[in-house]
Amino acid sequence: MSNFYVGSEIGQLRRVLIHRPERALNNLTPSNCQDLLFDDVLSVEKAGKEHDVFANTLRQQGVEVLLLQNMLSETLAIPEAKDWLLSTQISNYRFGDTFANDIRCFLADLPHAELASILLGGLSYAELPLQSSSIMQKMHSPCDFIIKPLPNHLFTRDTSCWVYGGVSINPMAKEARQRETNHLRAIYRWHPTFAGQDFIKYFGDDQNAYDKSTIEGGDVLVIGKGSVLIGMSERTTPQGVEALAASLFKHGQAKQVIAMELPKHRSCMHLDTVMTHMREDTFSVYPEVIRKDVQCWSLTGDAYGNVKAKEESYFVHAIEKALGVDQLNLITTGGDNFEAEREQWNDANNVLTVSPGVVIGYERNTYTNEKYDKAGITVLPIPGDELGRGRGGARCMSCPIERDGI
Length: 406
Hints:
The chain is an alpha/beta fold. The chain folds into two domains: 5-67 and 152-403, L-arginine/glycine Amidinotransferase, Chain A (5-stranded Propeller), CATH 3.75.10.10; 71-147, Pentein, CATH 1.10.3930. Helix content is 32%, strand content 22%. The chain is built from 14 helices and 20 strands. The protein has helices spanning 23-26, 44-60, 68-76, 79-89, 92-95, 97-108, 112-121, 135-138, 156-159, 175-190, 238-250, 315-323, 337-345, 366-374, and strands spanning 5-6, 13-18, 64-67, 123-124, 145-147, 160-163, 166-169, 200-203, 220-224, 227-232, 256-261, 275-279, 282-285, 296-301, 307-312, 329-332, 352-355, 358-362, 378-382, 399-403. The strands form six sheets. Strands 9-10-11-14-15 form a five-stranded mixed sheet. It has a four-stranded mixed sheet with strand order 1-20-2-3. Helix 3 crosses helix 7 (112-121) and helix 4 runs antiparallel to helix 10. The protein is globular and about 70 Å long.
């Protein structure tokens, strides 16, 4: 058994993958940010400093921090991985044979660290030092991107998620994020940390077109005791949930999946923007979305991958039963209706639990943080004035790789 194991949302966090964004944020502008799924442009230097505070807060809690850009750079040092990534990310169908070959030749000669930076942060036509005989270069302006930046890589939670003894390498819903998944496929396959280790890849490992079976880690809560709570959101489809559930059951890694339906809008893009797990019996919830009448199903299955869905009358009871607790304590977003809506938008509910009852959250969400405090939850505050503009909090910005169960 490998030591990659995530047994809960609240047990002691031991190892986590995060990404300090630089080049991608430099390439984020008012004219392209909407396409790249950001609501605004960020101050790059300030966002970097805020992210460093986040990383150091994790380290102070005894968590080993892996940085995505370093991991990718180290993966590119392996010739097979580099060939695979270049042919996948710079494919002939995307650029045409001639231009794809020209870009691959240019990139292949770069130092690994610089190549990693470009794959994550983008490359404009102005930055390409060669003249291609392809029509592509002639038809684009210098400011157009050959490789689009991936600013959402900041949210490492979504691209892959560890559930008990394995990982789901997630097929993403939006085109602006689909290339991210290949970086994780390469890291989990070739990086020395993971290569040859014994862990399960549940879903999304090969490069198939997954069509409508999309799933993102922000919707997946490993609540523990063999149960997983998954939101069906703007980005995670019922087909994606059933595919992951079937694989979990087939590998004997989970007993049940509780699937909740969410509204399909941006303010609650993923389940973890409206609900997170803070202590065994305690969840943070945004009551405008996590209402009593949320539709909810319990999925069970067998070793053959068959999945059976049964509707549950009330999601809270389903979770209480799964966790074996008498009564769930739901802490709602703080302040009056206006303040609560603002704080939810600024990720007040998207906290990262580092050990039972200890969470990392943005310091700006004063009303909600005060409620957590009164409920006996310790909030380790981090600045998020810039990072929060990407619409993601501490949980979104972290991919736990090793965490104790409950």
